[in-house]
Amino acid sequence: MPELVTSQGVLLLTAVLGYLLGSIPFGILVTRAMGLGDLRSIGSGNIGATNVLRTGNKGAALATLLLDGGKGAAAVLLARGFVGEDAAQVAGFAAFIGHLYPVWLGFRGGKGVATFLGLFLALDWRVGVALCLTWLVTAAVTRVSSIAALVAAASAGGWILWLTDGSLLVLALVLTVLVYVRHSENLKRIKAGTEPRIGRKKTS
Question: Which residues contact 155 (CB under 8 A, 6 or more apart)?
Fold first, then answer.
């Protein structure tokens, strides 16, 4: 963790704003805007890009991926620019929590993968690129989005120790645990061999 030099009040405000930014349900907004229906009644019901892809609209899925990643990156960059590095990590964490547990949707949000990648791209581009490549390679090999997400999240600590001074390690470990918690049902399906592959419209 970076040295906490910002006042608690400012950090709290940063966290609230980061949460609100992260809680914007872009998957739902994009699918509604494109006339694709209520995303929560499609496929797995998840609000992320993988489930948007199950509508068959790749453009909508790409837009959701970029927007969900972008809100994580924006939270970090805005906090860093206006406050400092300690606030950047707080904002990134809060945005991630906002995506997972958005107040607007009864605290039932997404699984956070795109936001995870986006905030790390903003915190340290080297780690972010390494995580994106890890996801892409794993997805290409397994054709299973959840496996790619879990492998990428699990690799975060290693990439941080190799590429940086380690100041992001605590944040990465906490976020990785949350990614695994949110993927608990996926882990069960992976173990059972019933986890759907990328692009499949229906879940098991």
Answer: 130, 131, 134
